[in-house]
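Sample pair:
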Amino acid sequence: MRHGRRGAQPVETAHGGPVEVEVPTFHVFSEEWWLRNEKRFATKTRTDYRWRLEAHLLPYFAELCLDAITFDTVERYIAAKLAEDKPLSPRSINMTVILLGAILEGAVERELIARNPTKRKGRRVRERAPSRSYLETAEQIAALLDAAGEWTARPQRSAVTSSDARCSPRSRSRGCGSASCARCAGATWTSPPGGCTPALRQRRATGS
């Protein structure tokens, strides 16, 4: 259900006289903000933002006028999220505060509120740094060296020698003649097509 506007905020007009402007509730303004910006977000981002807004921000801020959301209000929201039976992770709570700040920044730009209460330091939950593994003891270092020794002791595939690289399919048909060639050493080669070699054909032609 759409909530009505509440509260009033004095704003200076171009003629210099103050005029009271109705300040909407967070529910009303966040709905307007969503309609203005929804199409800018990717599908995954829209799903995430709706979850932050509908499952967490609206249940706490919906009935509050924008000018009633102060630094203390944001801090109490964070404390309430941390005190839940199954609290969100610090990062997830911070993500909801970031979205709250984006919505309230639109209210600042429209001069509905004077400042954004989420921007002051301390409006975030401290996130734990990811744990990293370190070699702290001599036993850990010795175990790492032992593992490295076992790896290097494994038989490795022999590298292709330079003579292997020069041994082409054509040369293999008659033997490349290199004693160091792993492909040709000890191989028995057959005669080329025709049953004779060029030297044999020459001897037959001369009758020798």
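The beta strands are 6-12, 18-23.
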